[in-house]
Amino acid sequence: MEELELPYALETYERDPVTMRGGSALTSHSPFGKAPAIVDGDLELSESGAIIAHILDRYAGGRLQPEPGTDAWSRHAMLMHMAEATAMPALTVDLIETMGAEVPQAIRWIPGPTGAEVLDQLAALLDHRAYVLGDDLTAADIQMWFVMRAASARQDFRSYPTLGTYLDRLEARPAFAAAVARGGPVEMHAA
Predict the structure, then answer these.
(1) Contact predicate 29/39, CB 8 Å
(2) pLDDT at residue 42, as a whole number
(3) Per-residue confidence (pLDDT) for residue 125, from 0 to 100
């Protein structure tokens, strides 16, 4: 919303400190009590990728995405979904292990690649590029920010200087600063 300079109202919800669930107020907008969630008229949506796709479709006027029907648009869609479907599950498995918990073998197959393999691929993708599709920010970069922020908690993140520079570039954008000023800093806790 900040990148598109669109007006919006922000509501925050306190999470239960034990379960980390959003509570009944958030559940009224999101079936599983997950954030983010949006209410746009009568439409209520959760899941980051769906929210971003909705905003792009209704309000972006072609901004923050390649032209539909092109190969670049298809790669953009792939990267949008890769953030949640491949990258975050792999990084979450790694995070669980760094917390000292054992990840059952039956769970390991779900993400496919390891967190390191995900970061290797993203570093290769960003080699000689400012953003995941080239010189211009797209919604895929906005979606990938959370992946980078989660990855930055890894002890080996500094061995991926391209990714560190990418994260810094995303967080240096005026729209990012405006979002943080409005919503507060993003805090990630391992336990």
Answers:
(1) yes
(2) 94
(3) 96
Question: How far apart are the C-alpha atoms of 170 and 152, rounded to whole Å?
Answer: 13
> Please, what are the domains in the chain?
1-63 (3.40.30.10), 71-177 (1.20.1050.10)
Residue 191's pLDDT is 45
Q: How many CA atoms does the CB half-sphere of 145 hold within 13 Å?
A: 17
Rounded Cα gap, residues 72 and 78, in angstroms: 10
In the block, residue with structure tokens 């009224």: 28
CA pair distance 162, 151, nearest whole angstrom: 13
Q: Which stretches of the chain drop beneath a pLDDT of 50? A: 191
The number of residues in the chain equals: 191
> Three-state secondary structure along the chain?
CCCCCCCCCCCCCCCCCCCCCCHHHHHCCCCCCCCCEEEECCEEEECHHHHHHHHHHHHCCCCCCCCCCCHHHHHHHHHHHHHHHHHHHHHHHHHHHHCCCCCCHHHHCCCCCCHHHHHHHHHHHHCCCCECCECCCCHHHHHHHHHHHHHCCCCCHHHCHHHHHHHHHHHCCHHHHHHHHHHCCCCCCCC
